[in-house]
Amino acid sequence: MQRILFLMILLIMAAGGRQVVAGETLRAGVASMITPVSTVRYYQQVVEYLGQKLGMPAEMIHRTTYDEIDVLLEEGRLDLAFICSSPYVLDKKKFGAELLVAPQVNNTAYYHSYIIVHKDSSIDTFERLRGKSFVFVDPKSNSGRLYPAFLLAKRHETPESFFSSFLYSYSHNKSVEIVAKNRADGAAVDSIVYDYMAATDSPYAAQTRIIHRSPPFGIPPVVVPPSVDPKRKRALREIFLKMHEDPLGRDILAAMRIERFIEVADTNYDSIRAMNTFIDNSQPASEAVEGQATVRGRRDDGTVYFGVLPRDNPVTIYGQYQPLVDYLSLSTGQKFELHLEKSYRDVVDSLGEGKILFALLGPLTYLDAYKRFDAPPLARSRTTRGETFFRSVIVSDIDGGISELSQLVDKKFAFGALWSTSGNLIPRYMLAWSGIHLQDLNEYRNYGYNDTVAKKILGGEFDAGAVSLSTALRYQPHGLKIIATSDPIPTGPVVVSPKAPYALAHKVQAALLALSENEEGRKVLAKLDPDLQGGFVAASDADYAGIRKMINDVPVTCGKACHPKITF
What we know:
Layout: H1 2-12, E1 26-31, H2 40-54, E2 58-63, H3 66-74, E3 80-82, H4 85-95, E4 98-104, E5 110-111, E6 113-118, E7 133-136, H5 142-154, H6 159-162, E8 165-168, H7 172-180, E9 186-190, H8 191-199, H9 203-206, E10 208-213, E11 217-218, E12 222-224, H10 230-242, H11 247-256, E13 260-262, H12 270-281, E14 304-308, H13 314-332, E15 336-339, H14 344-353, E16 358-360, H15 363-373, E17 377-382, E18 389-390, E19 392-397, E20 412-415, H16 421-433, E21 443-446, H17 450-458, E22 464-468, H18 469-475, E23 480-485, E24 489-490, E25 493-496, H19 502-513, H20 519-525, E26 535-538, H21 545-552, H22 554-557
Parallel strand pairs: 1-2, 1-3, 7-8, 7-9, 14-15, 14-16, 20-21, 20-22
Antiparallel strand pairs: 3-12, 4-12, 4-13, 5-11, 6-9, 6-10, 16-25, 17-25, 17-26, 18-24, 19-22, 19-23
Helix pairs in contact: 1-8, 2-11, 5-12, 13-19, 14-15
């Protein structure tokens, strides 16, 4: 069984934050289903191997949802993609996606859907999940949605009529985690992922049990769009099919516990087609992807709340973000309203509770939202310079006589909000890496707003402090001086509450990604915070792997206890 486990790593792993490169570059698409942090190295080896054999650079294009990869395939912006079985069936019918190869593991090219519950649950059959809460993976997932929807259709039921509520996790291991933590009563997950978690002693898998196994389905394949160059298609297939014969390829496959890649018949996926047909011919459902746990994030008049971090005073925030909220209302046909909370943590709490359905977060608050509430990213911003990263800076008064970090010993330092990435987390690392820990400072305090930090320094109350680069540039004419600049930090994402309807999340994502593509959208961007003025690009959890590792490595890299005691 362990051999099966690593298969999913190949098929669904992620690549953090790379942009599609134009020209002669191999472009491989991957949808996110398991945590990318633990799987990047395996998939990276496969992509690099393909590129090496073809004699060309290779790019991984990672997306959160299956639909995003499907769109890229249909538009011919990918050379190949590692996708779920159900999207293959849909894509073949819609635009002619073609099978390339599929992995063979334990002499088979099939897998299952598991229905799981908490290990202490009294639920022992699928029927006993009636009236309970349930987790799907993705609206297009075979094992994570189509199969349980088929079970419901055979009962003349829909997710809305059968479950009390349901949500989408966009990740098989997240679904397992949600059930393990009793956030939902049941879930449908991929057998390969679940078996991998169980075999590697996942504490989440240990807290769950399987109550139902599906019949076998054709395993998630490697596919190509119909527009791919025939020569490249043949070359890719040959590389995959001979990978187990090559010493380097054999080593990669051995590490992933895959025997080989094989050609598979399209008929392997006929059972999935049959389920789709049965559901389509069954009693019509009302937006089965909507879910029911969505009303808290809407007013009685249907208004949806959009949250932002209180990093500046309310007047500044409304000026910088209200144009974006107005744009979303116009673009989606859904009334949006900007919603402010008192603290960064309050924004995350409201997102998890469904009080707000969407929020623009920083990297640190995103990691918190993803860990505690399973809130996935939809898009992340580009700065006015077109970059998908920003920087934290340490600043002082131009007349204060401080020009480098070593001079901050025994000085007074102003940090931003406790959960601010640029105002608190990163500058603490910058100080520590320079040999300065909190006990080396004469005094330090955290302030809620970037503006407050800047004004405290300019007013002489503090010798130095930490703000975002955009804030520092705004106060430079008033005498603020940058004395240290951080490495690039990924811009924060717009995230969606797990209680938001999928259809609405899809509309919001599409609206954000289209902002910079037309003149009206660019006019909106010009009114926003400088860190948003370049528009938005697709985001995934993998974009924040570096920040997550930095935080989780604190016990190893610092023994001074001067960093927030949090792990992700």
